């Protein structure tokens, strides 16, 4: 397993076509049904959206980390970044829209040169803003030194990945030294009030499994994280979200290289849960790519599966036409519907 992006290593997994082919062949080899067929058989049929509640902006693939399981294939070598023009289009849509929540992700979205300006503009619009912060960016140099205070000023909800409460498992997945730096960043966030219930400043953590298995119970893991992080490091947080690793991009590479792909796909398919399928996040989310392209979710975005229908870019936003679309699905969607379900906000069923 390399520690650079798939792109910089020239991996065939950069191509969504290769990823689809691998997933299709894996299901076929095990005689497992495709995701659309499973949706139909369970009586849910094609997925359609409800009213958009979450406007997710992916600011680009630039990141200070190169985590082994990254579905974005992000890293320091990636240069894709949302420019101000695309952000202005997003802001003008949001100004006219009842959508209340904006979820900012990346890469490390803080590394986008217009990140702080965007948060300030969203704050002026009165939107609830969430940022998916990888924690170590708070320690990535002078430029980011006051990030915790900046977040607090704008009442940004911080959502941070911490795969485990121990160094070995966290560093194995996210890179050498990441656990210690994450702990330091969490302390900085706590110091300005994040994770302290009376402050109203929300700090949520995200757990994803270290290997080819589904997450354990969200409530149980949250209890363990809370107890151990507080006891060993004095760290507090609000909630823990469990997320299932999606069989795409660098996690797909891990599955292939470790010989776990067939077993993992079989686990996802046989753990299909219709309740989770009815609650998938693509139903109430709109995902915007760094170039303004629109997708049903961040996973479809990374697989370059643009929205079905005539609206392809935020420049052409039309809520009525978007509401009439069918959500595009693929075999990777089993990752959202297995067991207790998985979304950017954790378990769904
Ligand atoms: S998982 Fe997050 S922190 Fe890790 S490389 Fe991807 S975008 Fe960066
Ligand atoms: S991968 Fe995206 S489109 Fe598929 S079920 Fe999950 S959220 Fe929906």
From TrEMBL:
Domain Arsenosugar biosynthesis radical SAM protein ArsS-like C-terminal: 214-347
UniProt KW keywords: Iron, Iron-sulfur, Metal-binding, S-adenosyl-L-methionine
Occurrences of domain Radical SAM core (ranges): 58-195
Chain segments annotated as coiled-coil in the UniProt record: none
Domain of life: Bacteria
Molecular function GO labels: catalytic activity; iron-sulfur cluster binding; metal ion binding
Cofactor: [4Fe-4S] cluster
SUPFAM superfamilies: Radical SAM enzymes (SSF102114)
InterPro entries referenced in this protein's UniProt entry, alphabetically: Aldolase_TIM, ArsS-like_C, rSAM, rSAM_ArsS-like, rSAM_sf
PANTHER family, sorted: FE-S OXIDOREDUCTASE, SLR0304 PROTEIN
NCBIfam families the record matches: rSAM_SeCys
Protein name: Radical SAM protein
Organism: Leptospira ellisii
């Amino acid at each position: 397993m390399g520690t650079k992006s798939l792109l910089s290593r020239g991996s065939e997994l950069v191509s969504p076509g290769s990823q689809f082919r691998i997933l299709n062949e894996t299901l076929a080899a095990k005689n497992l049904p495709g995701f659309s067929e499973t949706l139909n058989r369970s009586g849910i049929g094609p997925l359609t959206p409800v009213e958009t509640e979450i406007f997710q902006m992916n600011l680009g693939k630039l990141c200070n980390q190169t985590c082994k399981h990254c579905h974005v294939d992000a890293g320091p070598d990636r240069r894709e970044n949302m420019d101000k023009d695309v952000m202005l289009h997003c802001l003008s849509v949001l100004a006219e829209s009842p959508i209340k929540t904006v979820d900012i992700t990346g890469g490390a979205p803080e590394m986008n040169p217009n990140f702080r300006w965007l948060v300030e503009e969203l704050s002026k619009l009165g939107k609830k803003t969430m940022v998916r912060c990888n924690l170590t960016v708070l320690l990535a140099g002078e430029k980011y030194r006051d990030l915790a205070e900046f977040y607090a000023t704008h009442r940004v909800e911080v959502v941070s990945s911490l795969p485990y409460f121990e160094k070995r498992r966290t560093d194995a997945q996210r890179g050498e030294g990441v656990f210690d730096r994450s702990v330091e960043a969490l302390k900085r966030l706590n110091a300005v009030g994040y994770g302290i219930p009376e402050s109203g400043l929300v700090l949520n953590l995200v757990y994803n499994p270290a290997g080819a298995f589904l997450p354990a119970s969200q409530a149980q893991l949250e209890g363990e994280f809370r107890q151990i992080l507080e006891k060993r490091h004095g760290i507090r947080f609000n909630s823990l979200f469990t997320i299932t690793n999606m069989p795409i991009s660098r996690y797909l590479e891990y599955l292939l290289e470790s010989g776990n792909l067939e077993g993992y796909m079989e686990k996802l398919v046989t753990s299909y849960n219709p309740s989770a399928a009815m609650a998938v996040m693509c139903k109430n989310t709109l995902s915007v790519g760094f170039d303004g392209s629109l997708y049903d979710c961040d996973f479809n975005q990374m697989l370059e599966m643009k929205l079905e229908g005539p609206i392809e870019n935020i420049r052409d936003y039309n809520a009525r036409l978007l509401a009439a679309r069918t959500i595009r699905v693929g075999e990777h969607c089993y990752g959202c519907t297995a067991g207790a379900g998985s979304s950017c906000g954790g378990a769904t069923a």
